[in-house]
Every structure is written in C-alpha cells, then in structure tokens.
Amino acid sequence: MGIVCLKKKKTTTPRDGAVGSWLVSSDEPGVPIPGAMRRSSSSSSSTRRTGRAAGRRDTGSALLAPPGAVGAEAEAEALPGVVGVVGTCPGMCPSNEFALRQRLRRLHRLELGPSPERLPDPERAVKEYSRPAAGKPPPRPDELRPPAVLLATAAHLLQLAGQDGEEDDDDDEEDDGGQEGVPTVSAADRGAFVADRLRALRLDLTLQRLSGPPAAAVLEHAVAALLHAGHRLSAEPPSRFDAQLHRAQLQETLGALRRAYRHGEGARLPRQPGFQALFLLYNLGSAEALWQILQLPKEIRNAPELRTAMAIHSAFLERNFARFFRLAGALPYLPSCALHPHLGSARRLALMIFSHGFSARNCRYPLPHLAQLLATDDLEEMAELCRAHGLAVTEGCVHFQKGAFKDAGPQAPRPSRLLVGRKRGKASLLELLEKMCH
C-alpha cells in the first residue's frame, strides 16, 4: 500500500481580529480562535506583541476562554499588594470559607462525611475557586495554603478524580458511602468539582509566586487529574462537560508546569521527561510544540518517553498511520489520555488516504483488518466511522472510492477502551503518577 504524502502548506499569521487568527504564547502551541471567542482578539493582540518584545517570555495560555473561566491567575499578578503573600492555612480549605459555605449550604457532596449522616467534614472540604478582582481585598495569609498543603490537596484531588468508575454514572443513584467512604456522585459532577478545586490550587500558587520543584510537584498532580478527566468524560454531552473549557484549563496547567520546570533548572525533577512528553502528545501535529521540545536540554530530549512521543508526532505528520497506531498501542495510561483527543483526526485522515490508495471498482478491504489497523474498540465502531465518511460497508468489507469519501469533520468524541481505558488496570492515578519517575 502506498502512502499518500500530503504537501504541507506554508502558514502565515493573519492580522489581529481576522478570521482564524492565532494566539500564540511561549508555552502552548497556536490554536485557532473560535468565532464566538474572537471578541477578545483585540486585547490578546497586545499580549502577543508584549510577549514577542520580551523575547518570547511567558504570557499565559494559548487558548482564549470565556471571561472568568480560565486564566484569572494572570489577573492576580496585576493586582497591587496581592502577589507574594506567604500562606499559612493548615488545611485544604480555609476555616472561614468552610464556615461560610456550610452556613449557605454550598458544600459539595464530596465534602460531606459518609452515609447515612452526611455531615459537613472539614477534613474533606477543599477551597473553591474565586476569581480575583480589583475590588476584592487581598487574601490574608491564613486563606492561602503553603506548598506542603497544596501538594497534599493535589494528591487528594487526584485520588478523587480516579474514583469515577463506570458504575456511578447515574445522577440519581443513592449514595452508599462510595469508595473509602466517599459519597458516590456522577463522573461529570466529580470532574467539575476536581477541575474547580484545581483552578483554586493554581491560583494559590500564583498568589504566593511559588515556582520550581514545589510548584512542579503540585502541577504534575493537576495535569494527571485533568488528562484522566478529559478521556473519561469525552462522551458526556456539552451540558455536563465543557470540552473547550477543559482543554483551555489543561493547556494553562501544562504551561504553568513547564514554567516551573524552567525555574527549577538544576534541581532534580524526575518526572519532567514524562510530562514534557505529555505536552507534545496533547499538542500532536503542532510545529511550535515540537520546536519547544527541541529546545530542551539533551539529557531530557533523549529520555525514552520523549523519544517515543517524538516518534508518534513524526508518524502523524508523515501520515504513517500503521506506525502511529502501533506506537499508540504501546503507550502507558496517562500518555494515552494525552493522545486521545487526536485519535479521531488520525482515523479520519487514514480513511481519506485509503480512499485514494485503494480506490478501485472491485477492491474490497476487510473490515476486521481495518479495525485492527486503526485500533477501534470493535467492528461496529469501525463500520460506523466508515459510513460517516461516505464509505460503503457490505459483507464485512469496506469499499474505498475516492469520489465517495466525504470529510465529515471531527466525530463526536468517545472514550477508547482499547487504546486508553484498559491500560489503567486496577492502579490508582497516584500510583500511575509515581511510575512516571524517570
């Protein structure tokens, strides 16, 4: 079978505010701005010019999110007298916030004790996200958590993120104490709780100007939790899981983590190669992401995790999908979660190439072989994907016709049991994170 090489077109950066303009930072690859979000392009253009004038210094996320959704940490840095406070809060949630939310009955189900009492539990409560604003008073030291408490909070949230088995998807399911006494909630509600508390965690880091190894350890837990949630909730409807907002938060967290790595240069950061690989896999196909990886020190670039990620990146760009899916099948769980958003695009491009390479009147391609090659969970998923792109499937075979193929665009995401889900096994997310030490 011949591989069809697609000539890479030279791209240019449109003027600010133009359709499809790009917002690029030093930590995340350029991402096209959706039409509904172009209203922020005028302010973002000044950010781009400032970042370039400062020699590609860090400017935050490459994604625009709705106002108040993501990236408010940057606003905290601009508030006078706020940044640089040393936190003294001994628990995951400040006592005054816990008392206020308890009085207003705003405690989450995951912050309550086990059934049947379900009493408010200060040991389970986690500080919720509150957007910084110029009109708010600066946070007191007892409202900010120091590095050790932030790390313990991140570990708690990562553990909660992993307790979202398939059996607890029903919102109306009665709580039975859950795993280790944790009330059972739907996976979507659990993911929303964890995401909100992770944003508060990052804000505490920013307000205290924490970076280097202490911040890196906290942010590694956050990235792992968000990657897991991105795959686990990928089939949820938009009303329960905002994929665009989730991607923005994950890109912001990856950017903050990579800045922490740079500020901790010279310190022992054993997980850095693995998380740099996660960054490249999550931004598969991005020339800027690859360029940033190539600027890393040689000892990090030559780590097995990064070499594998770069091989997958190259296979995707070369449209060598047999090698792409073979390498993807050998990835551990967290890297597979990072690659998961790109599986649909890879399969769509593979079908387009096959439609040209096997376009013949009497040519039939066995469906089981195609499902194995593109690593779908079952034959029905493969047949459904073919039909969505205008390809006929009869008697267990696919009929590739160049004229019949239609680009249906991105398909509705779905979790992948073969390439992602089964790789976790019985291990907790904390255990999987520990295995990433190089």
UniProtKB/TrEMBL annotation:
Residues 118-130 have a biased composition (Basic and acidic residues). Residues 1-12 have a biased composition (Basic residues). One of its GO terms (cellular component) is nucleus. Residues 164-178 have a biased composition (Acidic residues). Residues 38-48 have a biased composition (Low complexity). Residues 1-66, 111-145, 163-188 are annotated as: Disordered. Residues 92-394 form the SAC3/GANP/THP3 conserved domain. GO terms for biological process: centrosome duplication; spindle assembly. Signal peptide: none annotated. This is SAC3/GANP/THP3 conserved domain-containing protein. It comes from Phrynocephalus forsythii.
